[in-house]
Design brief:
The protein is of the alpha+beta class. The protein folds into three domains: 89 residues, 2-Layer Sandwich (Uridine Diphospho-n-acetylenolpyruvylglucosamine Reductase, domain 2), CATH 3.30.43.10; 119 residues, Uridine Diphospho-n-acetylenolpyruvylglucosamine Reductase, domain 3 (2-Layer Sandwich); 190 residues, FAD-linked oxidases, C-terminal domain (Vanillyl-alcohol Oxidase, Chain A, domain 3, 3-Layer(aba) Sandwich), CATH 3.40.462.10. Helix 7 crosses helix 9, helix 7 runs antiparallel to helix 12 and helix 12 packs antiparallel against helix 13. The two termini are 13 Å apart. Bound molecules: flavin-adenine dinucleotide. The site of flavin-adenine dinucleotide has 36 residues, from strand 3, helix 4 and strand 10.
């Protein structure tokens, strides 16, 4: 179904702020998570607001006419969250990318949603500050997208996720009403916590137009490196024990041997193709004790090498490999493509078991299933390399992917630790939360967006507005 968006011409928008050109429409009908088998729903128009007033006017007019509006930022989402499920308007927030105010004395910055994450760090670096929860995609994704998916990153094990660093939001409701949520005080007990309701709501409840972010001081001491293990089981148990023992680690990431092989092909590195744990420690004093505490635990798990360094270049190389592993996986075999990127998350004591599940299933079906991820959070990224031209192979890969999600939920975990539900994880919502909780979520959605115009077809499995032919 397509929608008449000619009303956009009557709004006070400037030249170039909306378009129905094929190139604009096509580029907003996919994101990084769009699969080869997906049928994209192309929007009818793309609009580029430049202010909160623009967003308000567009939503009020769309709401009056029942036209769906799907917020779109950098499109790096991995679950199709920004891809329209019902045509209508793609609301591209990337032109709203200014720093509105910066208060280093309060460790706070006010930004528009389209600003790229690393630009926030660049803005505050000279004051010795940083924004800790940036995802690995922090150089290519926006603050608005991160807030809307409640993203997290490699430093989440020490510093927490995006939700922990957002103090206040300005947002526009479906009917164009502008609201403020949260407070610029670092704590508040006032009223319902609308700010945390909007964080992670994937553009289904409101459009975020400004955010106050909290910042942290850069640690005086940073040390990083890698530990190499004989078996993946040793590596995952070592991480689990470290977290349970309270080692104060800032990053602790597992990379399996298969991922290391793929990284070597892609980056030309010479990593041992063995299970590894990449580590980074942050402290203002006493970093040696923390590193030794970790080493002692790793030795209990037969670590074969434990190599730490203060050298910035060495560390940059290591973390670049980890950050860009997804590219290495995607290009490893020209005949195969990675299926959806998994991001199940389980309680830390169950981490070895979820990794074991992926490897057992891959071995049973002779599939390539690389595993890596934010192990300290119990978060596992896994995928399966699939031959999309072979329907049987595709089905087997999909089954593996789904079985791992089911297992994670069964272990008390979640289908998605950071990527959100979008289109890809809708079918797990009820399994994870139960029908009554999903009904409560739907009641909230109906209250804030009675006509269902905001990002319809996302999060809920039985939303009528699904992709064409779904
Ligand atoms: C190589 C790579 C590595 C990644 N690593 C990580 C990682 O470590 N951790 C992690 O959490 N994710 C990661 N991701 C996923 C992705 O980068 C994050 O989900 C990111 O937060 C999405 O931001 P975006 O600007 O691209 O948003 P988009 O993909 O454009 O949108 C994401 C969702 O937010 C909504 N939205 C966007 N802006 C607004 C707004 N202003 N108001 C309301 N709704 C809005 C959209 O409708 C959509 O539902 C990775 C992706 C890639 C490609």
């Amino acid at each position: 179904m397509s929608y008449d968006c000619s009303f956009l011409a009557d709004l006070r928008l400037e030249d170039g702020q909306f378009s129905s050109d094929e190139s604009h429409l096509e580029s907003h009908a996919a994101d990084w998570g769009t699969q080869e088998t997906d049928r994209a729903v192309v929007p009818d128009a793309v609009v580029y607001p430049r202010s909160t007033a623009d967003v308000s006017a567009i939503l009020a007019a769309a709401s009056d006419r029942g036209v769906p509006v799907t917020p779109y930022a950098a499109g790096t989402g991995l679950e199709g969250g920004a891809v329209p499920a019902s045509a209508g308007i793609s609301l591209d927030l990337t032109e709203m990318d200014r720093v509105a105010d910066y208060r280093p004395e309060d460790f706070q910055i006010d930004v528009e949603p389209g600003i790229i994450g690393s630009a926030v760090n660049e803005h505050v670096a000279e004051d010795g500050l940083f924004f800790p929860p940036l995802p690995s995609s922090g150089d290519i994704s926006t603050i608005g997208g991160m807030i809307s998916t409640d993203a997290s990153g490699m430093k989440t094990v020490k510093y927490g996720e995006i939700a922990d660093w957002v103090l206040h939001l300005e947002a526009v409701l479906a009917d164009g009403t502008v609201i403020e949520a949260g407070s610029r005080a670092v704590k508040t007990s006032s009223g319902y916590n609308l700010k945390d309701l909007l964080v992670g709501s994937e553009g289904t409840l409101a459009v975020i137009t400004q955010a106050t972010l909290e910042l942290a001081g850069r640690p005086a001491q940073v040390r990083g490196g890698r530990a190499i293990f004989e078996t993946l089981e040793d590596a995952t148990r070592a991480v689990s024990d470290c977290v349970q023992a309270g080692v104060d680690v800032a990053k602790i990431e597992v990379v399996d041997g298969l991922s290391a092989t793929m990284a070597n092909e892609y980056f030309g590195t010479e990593l041992p193709d063995a299970p590894m744990v990449f580590l980074e420690f942050h402290a203002n004093h006493g970093i040696d004790e923390e590193v030794e505490f970790c080493r002692a635990i790793f030795e209990d798990h037969d670590v074969s090498r434990f190599e730490m360094s203060d050298d910035d270049d060495e560390m940059d190389e290591l973390w670049q490999v980890r950050r860009e592993l997804a590219y290495a996986v995607a290009t490893y075999d020209p005949g195969l493509e990675p299926i959806q990127s998994g991001d199940v998350t389980v309680p830390i004591s169950k981490y070895p078991e979820i990794v074991r599940t992926v490897k057992r299933l891959a071995a049973e079906h002779d599939l390539l299933a690389p595993c890596f991820g934010h192990a300290g959070d119990g978060n596992l990224h896994y995928t399966v390399l699939v031959d999309y031209d072979d329907p049987v192979h595709l089905e087997t890969c999909k089954d593996l992917y789904a079985e791992v999600v089911d297992r994670a939920i069964g272990l008390g975990g979640t289908a998605t630790g950071e990527h959100g539900v979008g289109l890809g994880k809708r079918d797990y919502l009820e399994d994870e939360h139960g029908g009554a909780a999903v009904d409560a979520m739907k009641a909230i959605k109906r209250t804030l967006d009675p006509d269902g115009i905001l990002n319809p077809g996302k999060i809920f499995p039985d939303d009528e507005s699904r992709r064409a032919d779904d």
